[in-house]
Write a structure and sequence with these properties.
Strand content: 5-15%
Order of helices and strands: HHHEHEHHHH
Number of helices: 8
Number of strands: 2
Radius of gyration: 23 Å
Shape: elongated
Distance between the termini: 47 Å
Largest sheet: 2 strands, antiparallel
Strand order of the largest sheet: 1-2
Length: about 190
């Protein structure tokens, strides 16, 4: 056990973990099963379907009091991305007369990037619909369970996330996470070019 934690705190934590696991088992798993059942015969899951599924999951988490409406709203708000740009401007005035030519000016501007919600949807689409270069040949249930686990983790619901991840066979979880790392490093390599 963690040193410095009182017995009462350990019990509270254990009770919360149990409550989260129970919620995941009685609510999230049936939601996942229902979604998967609607995609038999190799139907791919579309982005709007995953978006609606996650909206339903978020709505349910708020309704059951696991996250606040504010947390759900923040999760769906665009992230802020800083873009650095370099432009050339004509030198003017005295500097223009002395040095002539153009001067490089760096500016920064902030734009809206994807929300955590959008990232969860995109990540799940990549996991569920086998990526051409690295097909995962696993059933959709485990792949969607992984996506929901990641969604819960990014919402700070660690024990729900852990429960979801434990529903995936260890060797399959390893395949999914290994592929995630390879795809992420491939994306990093492309964006570095």
């Amino acid at each position: 056990e963690a040193p410095g934690k009182g017995l009462a705190e350990q019990f509270r934590e254990a009770a919360e973990n149990l409550k989260h696991a129970e919620y995941a088992k009685t609510t999230l798993v049936p939601m996942i099963d229902s979604f998967v059942a609607s995609h038999v015969n190799g139907q791919i899951a579309t982005e709007p379907e995953i978006r609606q599924f996650y909206t339903d999951v978020l709505t349910n988490l708020v309704k059951e009091g696991y996250i606040s409406p504010e947390e759900a709203k923040k999760f769906q708000e665009p992230s802020k991305v800083v873009i650095k740009e370099e432009t050339e401007v004509e030198r003017t005035g005295l500097m223009g007369k002395i040095m002539g030519g153009k001067q490089k000016v760096q500016t920064e501007r902030t734009i809206d990037g994807p929300s955590e919600f959008d990232k969860a949807v995109t990540g799940t689409i990549k996991t569920i619909n086998d990526h051409g270069a690295m097909p995962l040949k696993l059933d959709m249930t485990e792949k969607l369970m992984f996506g929901v686990g990641k969604l819960c983790k990014s919402l700070g619901l660690e024990s729900m996330s852990k429960f979801c991840m434990q529903q995936i066979k260890p060797e399959n979880l390893e395949k999914i996470t290994a592929r995630e790392k390879v795809l992420a490093s491939a994306i990093d390599a492309v964006s570095a070019i």
